[in-house]
Design brief:
It comes from Paraburkholderia sprentiae WSM5005. Keywords: Plasmid. This is DUF707 domain-containing protein. With 291 residues, the protein is of the alpha/beta class. The protein has one domain (4-191, 205-260): Spore Coat Polysaccharide Biosynthesis Protein SpsA, Chain A (Alpha-Beta Complex), CATH 3.90.550. Helices cover 29% and strands 21% of the residues. The longest helix is centred in the first third of the chain and has 16 residues, at 56-71. The chain is globular. The relative contact order is 0.14.
Length: 291
């Protein structure tokens, strides 16, 4: 038994076999939670297979109810979508890094060719990591203690929308929360939801119940080459913002609206302006790839 675990909610087009194509030895166990159509589905890489029809979070909720004691024997548990492309070496090093840095909740950043919903999650090459109030439900990685603290939330929603903000608030006392820019994975398919009306309803309900806003903040960041950490503070930190601009993808600075979005993440006082939560609208009504 390894000390790290990947629980992958997957269908028949899962990309996880490609993770192992380089021949590296994984320092993690893989468990598949399968929702596909193949009655004879098997997998050479998985330690075991859990079968459950439904959404990602409905399936993971069922899996945790049945296997909570097993899962919590691991130090860190990663819960990615099945359209994430990465490799064993990246995952081995990512797990080691988040444990060494005492993250309670983390995600690898997204390769800059990725489809994305939140530009904050794109890799910023100026940083080792950025501590945030948000880790996306697409690729969250929990410490064992953090997962134990939030595992009941899997049963509160079918889409997962809103959990990104709630988890960060709940597990912050247990360790760092944030995006690890040192490691990036590729999200290969357009972001979609089976029913956007349900997704937005669940998002707004979760935020309202816990007194939160759908507003992403970067609280501090450790620079990659110097290794210095800059905290935002209530008024913002010019050095933190300078590094954010230098390391961000050009798409984040291509026009005034995109630039103001970047500015807002690093200037906390902008979040105190009273406003209503607005649905995220990507160009042409959907998220789009870069590259």
């Amino acid at each position: 038994m390894e000390k790290y675990l990947v629980v992958l909610r997957c269908g028949d087009r899962s990309l996880h076999p490609q993770w192992f194509s380089g021949g590296q030895t994984p320092r993690f166990d893989l468990i598949l939670s399968y929702y596909g159509k193949d009655k004879n589905f098997s997998d050479d890489f998985a330690k075991t297979i859990h079968r459950f029809k439904g959404s990602k979070w409905e399936g993971l909720h069922d899996f945790m109810l049945r296997n909570a004691e097993l899962v919590l024997q691991y130090r860190y548990i990663w819960l990615p979508d099945d359209d994430i492309l990465t490799d064993v070496q990246t995952l081995n090093e990512f797990f080691d890094y988040v444990e060494r840095e005492n993250f309670a909740l983390a995600q690898p950043s997204l390769d800059q060719r990725s489809y994305f919903s939140h530009a904050t999650t794109l890799q910023n090459r100026a940083f080792e990591f950025r501590e945030t109030n948000f880790v996306e439900v697409m690729v969250p990685c929990f410490s064992s203690n953090a997962l134990h603290a939030i595992k009941d939330s899997f049963g509160w929603t079918s889409t997962g929308w809103g959990l990104d903000f709630l988890w960060s608030k709940q597990v912050a006392p247990l360790g760092k929360v944030g995006i690890v820019d040192r490691f990036a994975v590729l999200h290969t398919r357009p972001v979609a939801s089976a029913d956007h009306s349900v997704a937005w309803s669940e998002l707004n309900q979760t935020l309202a119940q816990h007194g939160m806003r759908a507003s992403i903040k970067v609280l501090r960041g450790r620079t990659r080459y110097v290794g210095k950490t800059y905290a935002s503070g209530r008024l913002g930190n010019p050095m933190l913002f300078i590094h954010a601009v230098k390391g961000s993808h050009p798409a984040r600075r291509k026009n005034l609206i995109a630039y103001l979005g970047l500015l807002k993440e690093y200037l906390p006082w902008l979040h105190y302006t009273k406003r209503k939560t607005q649905p995220y609208r990507a160009p042409n009504g959907r998220s789009s790839p870069l590259g």
